[in-house]
């Protein structure tokens, strides 16, 4: 009877510190699932309660606790805040309550993914409370719009870029920033750059599926200098041409931090690919390079073959699929691989001028497989020697 009363009065008296520890699980099991997060976030630590809350949200599909710190409480609070922000309507919802929820949840918010933000909220006030936020993904779009499409509903606005740039400038915790599918152009990027050039915590930057051109590549090259901390840069599906490859090459020549570069689905052409790859000669950290769907040809193949022939190259995986390479270009790449023992992936699929049964493809596959086996054997030997 007492436990039922405590559970029923939790809205009025959310403190349970006077309840003996052995009775707490039963109290938590009786709590209703519609309690305000402002009450439960600071006062309920029982994982079984938060698991019940998560499973009660039938609209959440394929939730994975491993993506949320292996705790149900973190999973619920991160997803709940995501829902609040995505569905927030200033004309209907209470802004003060939103801020109260943010404050109550802030200790448990490490990852936030926002797939629509129709309210175009000023994110400064929100993120000022999220001191532990390390991963942020924002897309200014509309989910399940169906036949009600309106161009004005999509894309980042000038005010959004200004607000985000301030967030980026002052954060010390954010390490991953993803802004895909925002109709982000060079002018909006210029505003974001005022924050990015001052930031020293972001190591992964994703600007995929936007409208960046050569000028945007020139701006981003400023983030790739010798003082850069960026390890992952994703620019796939933009509008970067040959000149953009040249600008990125300038930054890469002095860069020592980048590990992954994704430029697939751009318009580099053979000339731009060559200039970009010239900036990667003797690069000491880049291991993953994706240049698929860029109309690369002979000059790019020659530049890459030179990099591959360097036994000290850091490259491990290269994607050149869906380009304009021919069989002689494949032979050049094979020649560059002869003394290479590091590359374990080289994708040349969908280069229509290279026959599927070409000898160079067969030998490249054999060499890649040999490198992969040798690396696994070496790793096993090293592990055995340690034990």
From TrEMBL:
Organism lineage: Eukaryota, Sar, Stramenopiles, Oomycota, Peronosporomycetes
SUPFAM superfamilies xrefs: RNI-like
Protein name, UniProt field: T-complex-associated testis-expressed protein 1
Organism expressing this protein natively: Phytophthora megakarya
InterPro entries: Leu-rich_rpt, LRR-containing, LRR_dom_sf
Gene3D superfamilies named in the record: Ribonuclease Inhibitor
């Amino acid at each position: 009877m007492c436990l039922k009363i405590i559970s029923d009065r939790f809205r009025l008296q959310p403190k349970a510190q006077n309840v003996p520890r052995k009775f707490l699980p039963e109290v938590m099991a009786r709590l209703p699932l519609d309690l305000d997060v402002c009450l439960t976030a600071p006062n309920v630590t029982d994982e079984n309660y938060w698991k019940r809350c998560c499973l009660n949200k039938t609209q959440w599909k394929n939730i994975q606790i491993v993506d949320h710190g292996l705790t149900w409480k973190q999973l619920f609070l991160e997803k709940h805040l995501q829902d609040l922000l995505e569905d927030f309507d200033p004309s209907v919802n209470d802004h003060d309550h939103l801020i109260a929820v943010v404050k109550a949840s802030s200790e448990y918010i490490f990852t936030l993914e926002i797939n629509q933000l129709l309210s175009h909220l000023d994110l400064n006030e929100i993120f000022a409370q999220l001191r532990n936020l390390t991963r942020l993904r924002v897309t200014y779009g509309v989910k399940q719009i169906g036949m009600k499409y309106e161009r004005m509903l999509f894309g980042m606005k000038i005010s959004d870029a200004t607000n985000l740039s301030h967030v980026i400038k002052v954060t010390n915790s954010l390490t991953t920033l993803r802004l895909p599918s925002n109709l982000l152009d060079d002018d909006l990027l210029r505003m974001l750059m005022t924050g990015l050039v001052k930031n020293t915590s972001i190591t992964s930057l994703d600007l995929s599926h936007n409208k960046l051109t050569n000028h945007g590549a020139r701006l981003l090259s400023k983030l790739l200098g010798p003082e850069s901390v960026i390890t992952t840069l994703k620019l796939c599906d933009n509008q970067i041409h040959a000149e953009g490859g040249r600008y990125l090459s300038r930054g890469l020549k002095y860069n020592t931090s980048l590990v992954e570069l994704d430029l697939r689905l751009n318009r580099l052409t053979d000339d731009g690919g060559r200039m970009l790859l010239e900036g990667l000669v003797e690069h000491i950290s880049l291991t993953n390079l994706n240049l698929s769907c860029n109309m690369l040809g002979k000059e790019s193949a020659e530049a890459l073959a030179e990099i591959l022939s360097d036994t000290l190259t850091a490259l491990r995986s290269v994607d050149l699929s869906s380009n304009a390479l021919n069989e002689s270009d494949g032979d050049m790449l094979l020649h560059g691989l002869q003394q290479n023992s590091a590359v374990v992936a080289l994708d040349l699929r969908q280069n229509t001028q290279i026959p599927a049964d070409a000898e160079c493809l067969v030998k490249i596959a054999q060499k890649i497989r040999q490198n992969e086996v040798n690396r696994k054997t070496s790793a096993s030997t090293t592990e055995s020697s340690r034990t």
